[in-house]
Specification:
This protein is 59% helix and 10% strand. The chain has helices at 2-17, 21-28, 30-33, 36-43, 60-66, 73-89, 92-96, 104-111, 128-131, 140-157, and strands spanning 44-47, 50-53, 112-115, 118-121. Bound molecules: heme C (HEC) (2 copies).
Length: 160
């Protein structure tokens, strides 16, 4: 019982401190590296479960300790897991949506609200699972992956 209370307290503390990761990226990294997704897929890879730079061959978590004068441990942990997810997310968003929409984060901020854990188009009021069957031209498998990564990004944005 006590353990559960502690876990809950930690979860709440985490939520309160959660930053908008994509704003962090745009403010601190995007000026030099562009969009996070393409940067992650081009420049980073996962080796033995560790996210490393393809050129530096260094773990990203170590690299960022000194890169540009260094980043804090919380920011590094958050950016590392965001970038690791992006390495694994695949290029579906870029291929099917990127021609018209800048980034997944932008789509969410401008067009989508989250209700009961579901992504809903602001204009249409439709769930994206339905909306995207008639918009963007991605097949069912790519749509599922796109919705999966939009859901992850919504979480990272702390998006409501
Ligand atoms: C002022 C420009 C600038 C900013 C801001 C910047 N970087 Fe970099 N970054 C570079 C350059 C240039 C390189 C290439 C290696 C070098 O010269 O240091 C690099 C390399 C990297 C690498 C290593 C890639 C590899 O192939 O090994 C990672 C990871 C990285 N940056 C992540 C970040 C993250 C995350 C942020 C934000 C927290 C950030 N960078 C902010 C310019 C920048
Ligand atoms: C050919 C350009 C184009 C492509 C490709 C495209 N979109 Fe859109 N999208 C738009 C435009 C323009 C709007 C806003 C106006 C409208 O509703 O027509 C929009 C609106 C949306 C909305 C708002 C829905 C609502 O109910 O408010 C969402 C969500 C969205 N797009 C997601 C995506 C995703 C995800 C993809 C990739 C699978 C994608 N779009 C591909 C042009 C595009």
């Amino acid at each position: 019982m006590k353990a559960r209370v502690v876990v809950l307290a930690l979860m709440l503390a985490g939520t309160a401190q959660a930053e908008d990761l994509h704003a962090l990226w745009d403010g601190q990294c995007g000026g030099c590296h562009g969009h996070a997704g393409p940067f992650a897929r081009e420049s980073l890879e996962i080796r033995n479960d560790i996210l490393v730079g393809k050129t530096s061959h260094q773990p990203v978590a170590e690299y960022l300790v000194t890169h540009n004068g260094g980043y804090g441990p919380d920011q590094i942990a958050a950016l590392r897991s965001m970038l690791a997810a992006q390495v694994q997310a695949g290029p579906e968003f870029q291929i099917h949506c990127g021609g018209c929409h800048d980034t997944a984060a932008q789509v969410l901020r401008d067009w989508v609200r989250v209700q009961d854990g579901k992504l809903i188009g602001r204009q249409s009021g439709q769930e994206l699972t339905l909306f995207l069957s008639r918009h963007g031209g991605a097949d069912a498998e790519s749509r599922a992956r796109i919705i999966q990564s939009l859901t992850r990004v919504a979480d990272e944005l702390n998006h409501r």
